[in-house]
Amino acid sequence: KFDVSKMSEWATPIQEVTLGATSADGGSRKNTVTLGGENALPYYFDAEMPHRNYVTMDVFDMPISMAKSVKENYGDVINDPAEWAKKAVRDFNADMITIHLISTDPLINDTPAREAAKVVEDVLQAVDVPIVIGGSGNPQKDPEVLERAAEVAEGERVLLASASLNLDYERVAKAATDYGHAVLSWTQLEINAQKELNRKLMKQCNVPRDSIVMDPTTAALGYGLDYAYSNMERIRLAGLMGDEELTFPMSSGTTNAWGARESWMKESPLKQDSDWGPREYRGPIWEIVTGLTLALAGNDMFMMMHPTSVQVLKEITQTLYG
Amino acid sequence: MKINSPLEAYKFLPGTNCGECGETSCMAFASHLIDRSLKATDCIPLVNESKYKKKYDELVTLLAPEIREVVIGVGDNAISIGGDDVLHRHKLTFFNKTALAYDVWDTMEEADLVERVNKIQDFKKFYVGDYLTLDMIAVRSVSNDPEKFAATVKKVVETTEFPLVLCSFEPAVLRAGLEVSAEKRPLLYAANKDNWQEVAALAQEFNVPVTVFAPNDLDLLKSMAKTFADNGIEDVVLDPGTFPTGKGLKTTLNNFLKIRRAGINGDRDIAFPIMAVPFTAWMAHDDEVSASYWETVVASIFTIKYGDIMIMHSIEPYALMPQLHIRDTMYTDPRKPVTVDPAVYEIGSPTADSPLLITTNFALTYYTVESDLSSNGVDCYLTAIDTDGIGVEAAVAGGQLTAAKIKKGLDDAGFDMEKLTHKVIVIPGLAARLQGDVEDETGAGVMIGPADSGRLPGWMEQNWPPQK
Ligand code: B12
Ligand code: SF4
């Protein structure tokens, strides 16, 4: 007879974090999304996973450079974030929308925070799914941008992306707690940095445990996915085994897969390589495999771009979820 | 492995520090035993001197990996599968990368057969200084006709050195295949609850590894594996069935998880390599692209979670490339930063007019750039700066790639800028912010190249030689 025991060391559940607020909770979302709550590695027989994985699709507040096969899907809405968001929910089955306010970067358009906040309002009007709000990644400007955005989104329980060690995370954290939002704790492929930032958010900024999601960084397939996978897997195992600084749900910038040349280049730059085949098929599967790998490491939420990738990743993760 | 510290392994060594193993001491050798970079057989006195016989035998037993290692094929193309000691790669590393076998079948026209085998054995994708390639051919009997099968196997053996999997549930068909390929040590696929006695006899007679197949029945799988092992057939591969969709897929994943966890935890009866058959995706999807996608998705799951060998069908590059890369991802040794020696490398035949390029000594970065240049016939000097094995962008952010480092790299390599007619250094696009500093530090002109080195050949056409 075959017999194997369950893992007794996995005794600490992952924190549940709910995003979005319905009218019952003072928001205007049709539904909420709950991440986390796991008692085991994902899809393992040791314990049922309480919530499925979710996909939030990227929307930008200005046209950006994108791989051709991604761009094709958004040509008609690229100048209108609200329409873009609608399309992602209506046609591509996005569970959530991430609005990236990249035009606020002083090196791009330096859009004032106040104006950027209007885009957030438009997106909240356009769709009724929970949303994530991202800055431009500029550490000087982001706190201000996220503060404004948090203010106009009060009551909607958005996820603010992101607090990180290289910017004034206290301001971002305060914007989240003041207006009832959750915060994305983003570090770069380093488990100790992740612990440090989470600790600071909890102890120094008093962010409640149910309002922290982690982004430990996603590196694409062939471009450091080995680091990203093991980093996430270690974080999740440590959480399950009781490290209270790491028991949070995780999010992945799966879109990073489009940075890998295998996903966007027309053909191999190397003559010795076998034919790479059509990039329209190569790109989406690059994003899918990158996401799926991290799903198996314990990632809960995926930030993605290509409709086919979203469809396949949702189908496979729901199949494994059961 | 039953021991996990060098001290424990040391007890079984001669303790003479004779140095025959190439290590300075027995203790140093012991630590290599624990990280599995050396084997007990590398200690010459331990193997040769009879007084150590008992210790040697004990040590070999203690060091044996929890999951058995099975060898398929012979000679340079032989492939080992299994041999793992951990459930998570960060705990040590995964050994023996998942073997990827692609199918051919015995109703194919000979010309098609040869063409397909060649496509499989010729596929290659450059990555970090080497080519990622496929491993094996799975020959399936569709005709169920022993003669046809034998003829197909024979043709495959004539066409390739790749190891084979012989696929049929009909013992007579398997025998016919073995008669023309046994000396290549193919893997038999498969013994099941109906044919196991005959297939076991074949494995024994021809001395080849064998797969036991018990779809979603771990009790049966284990009892068959145990029966085989008890009868001296230790080269066993387990196939618990691969169901490609719905609840079946979830169950399949959990069967893999259970088998491997039991094996690593010491249940010897089931501590064998596991086979996944993502090929089954073709039974669930009609069109070629969907089937290839789902096959790749299923293959990825079982590359990550404990599949040691897989049988697949699609040979479309958009399926093969991610399969090869996810395998490399999981089997890269997480303990080793992969680096190249810092130096100025000559690419092609550079002259005084050729560009001097800067990159880092992270192997992924260096080889990507190097191959972009050499395969496009660009003659140049490529400088690998010692960034502790960090890529360009992270090294600029982390301070391992600086103007001073670039100056030092060129000086240490003894590179004389004066021999260049142009006195210009080209830095990576992602290191653009170092431009001014590098000019000050080296006194040379500095040009900023493209962000991706794949665009260097095109960039050269536009920008080289530099305008005075
Ligand atoms: C893997 C990775 C790591 C790994 C690095 C492993 C390693 N051995 O390099 C680890 C975990 C260690 C790491 C750490 C850090 N990282 Co990091 N990391 C990445 C990641 C995910 C992939 C980088 C990579 O390997 N790319 C692939 C290689 C091949 O690219 P490459 O070296 O740049 O080479 C290409 C080009 O530069 C060009 N090229 C190369 N040479 C040449 C030469 C010439 C002449 C030309 C023209 C072109 C050219 O062509 C190459 C092929 O495309 C990126 C994010 C991402 N998805 O890109 C972040 C990233 C690079 N990291 C980043 C940061 C900030 C860090 C840290 C500082 C984080 C921290 N706060 O601790 C540390 C620094 C560590 C250190 N330096 O000590 C940032 C950099 C931001 C910035 N622009 O300043 C990034 C972009 C993440 C982000 N979005 O914020 N990181
Ligand atoms: S060969 Fe054996 S006895 Fe000699 S130093 Fe190495 S481990 Fe010790």
Automatic annotation (TrEMBL), chain A:
A Gene Ontology molecular function term of the record: methyltransferase activity
Role of this protein: Part of a complex that catalyzes the reversible cleavage of acetyl-CoA, allowing growth on acetate as sole source of carbon and energy. Probably maintains the overall quaternary structure of the ACDS complex.
Q: Does the keyword Methyltransferase apply?
A: yes
* Residue span, CO dehydrogenase/acetyl-CoA synthase delta subunit TIM barrel domain: 16-265
**What family, per the record?**
Belongs to the CdhD family.
Query: What is the protein named?
Result: Acetyl-CoA decarbonylase/synthase complex subunit delta
> What gene name is given for the protein in this entry?
cdhD
Which GO BP terms, alphabetically? methanogenesis, from acetate; methylation; one-carbon metabolic process
Question: Where are the coiled-coil regions?
Answer: none
Entry keyword set: Methanogenesis, Methyltransferase, Transferase
Q: Which portion of the entire protein is included?
A: 100 to 421 of 438
Q: In which pathway does it act?
A: One-carbon metabolism; methanogenesis from acetate
Q: How does it assemble?
A: Heterodimer of delta and gamma chains. The ACDS complex is made up of alpha, epsilon, beta, gamma and delta chains with a probable stoichiometry of (alpha(2)epsilon(2))(4)-beta(8)-(gamma(1)delta(1))(8).
TrEMBL record, chain B:
For biological process, the GO terms are: acetyl-CoA catabolic process; methanogenesis, from acetate; methylation
Q: Does the keyword Metal-binding apply?
A: yes
User: Where on this chain does [4Fe-4S] cluster bind?
Assistant: C18, C21, C26, C43
The record's section on InterPro entries has: 4Fe-4S_dom, Ac-CoA_synth_d_su_TIM-brl, ACDS_complex_subunit, AcylCoA_decarb/synth_gsu, AcylCoA_decarb/synth_gsu_arc, Dihydropteroate_synth-like_sf
* Enzyme superclass (EC): transferase
Where the record annotates domain 4Fe-4S, the positions are: 1-61
Residues at which 5-methoxybenzimidazolylcob(I)amide binds = T359, T365, G389, I390, G391, V392, S453
* Catalytic activity reported: 5,6,7,8-tetrahydrosarcinapterin + methyl-Co(III)-[corrinoid Fe-S protein] = 5-methyltetrahydrosarcinapterin + Co(I)-[corrinoid Fe-S protein] + H(+)
GO MF assignments: 4 iron, 4 sulfur cluster binding; iron ion binding; methyltransferase activity
Keywords in UniProt for this one? Answer: 4Fe-4S, Cobalt, Iron, Iron-sulfur, Metal-binding, Methanogenesis, Methyltransferase, Transferase
Residue numbers spanned by region Disordered = 449-468
How the cofactor is bound: the record states:
Binds 1 [4Fe-4S] cluster.
Superkingdom field? Archaea
Q: Which pathway does the protein contribute to?
A: One-carbon metabolism; methanogenesis from acetate
> Does the keyword Metal-binding belong to this entry?
yes
- One Pfam family of this protein, by short name? CdhD
Q: Give the EC number(s) listed in the UniProt record.
A: 2.1.1.245
> Which Gene3D superfamilies does this entry report, sorted A to Z?
3.40.50.11600, Dihydropteroate synthase-like (3.20.20.20)
Cofactor(s) the protein needs: corrinoid; [4Fe-4S] cluster
Looking up PANTHER family in the UniProt record yields: ACETYL-COA DECARBONYLASE_SYNTHASE COMPLEX SUBUNIT GAMMA, PTHR36214
Q: How does it assemble?
A: Heterodimer of delta and gamma chains. The ACDS complex is made up of alpha, epsilon, beta, gamma and delta chains with a probable stoichiometry of (alpha(2)epsilon(2))(4)-beta(8)-(gamma(1)delta(1))(8).
* Protein role: Part of a complex that catalyzes the reversible cleavage of acetyl-CoA, allowing growth on acetate as sole source of carbon and energy.
Query: Which protein is depicted?
Result: Acetyl-CoA decarbonylase/synthase complex subunit gamma
Which species is the source of this protein?
Methanococcoides alaskense
Which gene is annotated as encoding this protein in its UniProt record? cdhE
